[in-house]
Specification:
466 residues; binds uridine-diphosphate-N-acetylglucosamine; seven-stranded mixed β-sheet; UDP N-Acetylglucosamine Acyltransferase, domain 1; binds calcium ion; Spore Coat Polysaccharide Biosynthesis Protein SpsA, Chain A; alpha/beta
Length: 466
């Protein structure tokens, strides 16, 4: 038996009130449609087609290899969309799975369960259902006397008695592909929305329709509004956190930790509240991350400590210290045992092993050699108003407080710079560079100045009384 999947994703998602196609809204670092396709990816399907329409090009651009798009030019309802998808499958599969692109909580197990039920039952179609005391806007499942699915009625078209039914259509179906395409051709559009409804094809099938009822309605929650988007994202984030905790990651207050689907974290690492691991981020073992850290597309090596920091597209080695209040902009590499401390901003900085930038500095477009220590308040002046230039600081360098390095400039190994120096020329290995005005002491200045002021005051007072 060959199995194909059709994912319906052409709708605009009017209720999202967004210029982004509904199925491209992200949840925990992956689009709504991406979650549905990921659940399918875990099954071995012969073909997968996504029916696109609104924002077709944008949606198509996100499809993984092996998944093709079929365009539904006009959104005339789920039944019409399913027919577009089935035609694209072009008779290649005997059994078809129809899914909605707006049910991101769906698991591979649920889809597999539906396929198994369809096989075991020999039904013309099987629909996934679940129960909710108030099934809201979902289509209600009307069963016949023998327990088969007689029909599905949309909430907008339902009678009060039908609305009171708790069993709803999850929008996930398995069917005989040829039979379903046939039945769809008989579906009309005389309903509240004037659309061709996929569920209306079920009574037209040549054979009984079964149901697979899920214990947990959460799995098939559909997203139609941003309120539902947030609710689904919370569930997905909860699943991701649970997976990490079971893998040995500690979270003293898990609800306040936000981990994207592609993030990886090693065992015995602690994620404190306010931690966001975004995109392709990896954290090693035995780290302490947070409170209040945003890591985006970045790596943190084992045994490192990061507190109150924003790190973007950068690499932090093992045993490093970052923050509090540090910002690493793209292209930084902190080698093992190095430090970016309090109120430090870095950009394209390569910080050598064990080197430290502890306080109040901006270092950008810079190489800092191993074992060097950058004094408080140092700045690399990397921009001349036209171009960016690099500063190269050697190994075991100690710079004084409040130094400015006017790039391009090279500071040799084992050098020192005096506090307050503006370094514009290269410094040879082993030298001390001092670049500031010499101090001049003016002896007795204060007393002379005070005497002068007294004299002036006496004169002006004398002037007014006379
Ligand atoms: C649909 C079902 C409803 C079920 C619910 C489950 C119908 C008529 N109703 O309602 O019984 O309880 O799903 O979540 O099927 N789409 C297209 N082209 C179209 C119209 C829709 O591709 O012309 C896509 C949408 O992008 C969406 C999916 O089909 O991904 C479902 O459409 P939607 O309008 O959200 O249907 P619901 O009202 O949720
Ligand atoms: Ca929907």
């Amino acid at each position: 038996m060959s199995v194909g999947a059709v994912v319906l994703a052409a709708g605009q998602g009017t209720r999202m009130r967004s210029s982004t196609p509904k199925v491209l809204h992200p949840l925990a670092g992956r689009s709504m449609l991406g979650w549905v396709l990921a659940a399918l990816g875990d099954l071995s399907l012969d073909r997968a087609v996504v029916v696109v329409g609104h924002g077709a090009e944008d949606v198509e651009a996100t499809l993984p290899d092996g998944v093709s798009a079929a365009v539904q030019h006009e959104q005339r309802g789920t039944g019409h969309a399913a027919a577009v998808g089935l035609r694209a499958l072009d008779g290649a599969c005997d059994t078809v799975l129809i899914l909605c692109g707006d049910t991101p909580l769906l698991t591979a197990e649920a889809v597999q369960g539906l396929l198994d039920a369809q096989r075991a039952d020999g039904a013309a179609a099987t629909v996934a259902t679940a129960h909710l005391d108030d099934a809201g806007a979902y289509g209600r499942v009307v069963r016949s006397g023998d327990g088969r699915v007689e029909r599905i009625v949309e909430a907008r078209d339902a009678t009060p008695e039908e609305l009171a039914l708790t069993e709803f259509n999850a929008g996930l179906y398995a069917a005989d592909a040829a039979g379903l395409l046939d039945a769809l051709s008989g579906v009309g559009s005389s309903n509240a929305q004037g659309e061709f409804y996929l569920p209306d094809a079920l009574p037209l099938l040549d054979g009984p329709v079964g149901a697979m009822t899920l214990d947990d309605p959460t799995e098939v929650l559909g997203v139609n509004t941003r309120v539902e988007l947030a609710a689904c994202e919370a569930v997905l984030r909860g699943r991701l956190r649970e997976e990490l905790m079971l893998g040995g990651v500690s979270m003293p207050d898990p609800e306040r930790v936000y981990v994207d689907v592609d993030a990886r974290v090693g065992p015995d690492t602690v994620l404190w509240p306010g931690v966001h691991l975004r995109g392709d981020t990896q954290v090693g073992d035995n780290c302490e991350i947070g409170p209040d850290v945003v890591l985006t597309d970045s790596t943190v090596g084992s045994g490192s400590r990061v507190v109150a920091a924003h790190i973007d597209d950068s690499e932090v080695g093992e045993g490093c210290e970052v923050g509090p209040y540090a910002r690493l902009r793209p292209g930084c590499r902190l080698r093992d045992g190095s430090k970016a401390g309090t109120y430090v901003e870095m950009k394209k900085a390569d910080v050598g092993e064990g080197a430290k930038v502890p306080h109040l500095s901006y270092v950008g477009d810079v190489d800092i050699g191993p074992g060097s220590n950058i004094g408080a308040g140092n700045i690399t002046a990397n921009y001349d108003g036209f171009q960016k230039h690099r500063t190269v600081i050697g190994a075991r360098v100690k710079t004084g407080s409040d130094c400015v390095f006017v790039a391009p400039v090279t500071v040799g190994d084992d050098t020192m710079t005096g506090a307050g120096s503006i370094i514009t020329d290269d410094v040879p290995d082993g030298a001390l560079a001092i670049a500031r005005a010499r101090q001049k002491n003016i002896e007795g200045f204060t007393e002379r100045a005070a005497a002068k002021a007294r004299e002036a005051m006496e004169q002006s007072q004398g002037g007014t009384t006379k």
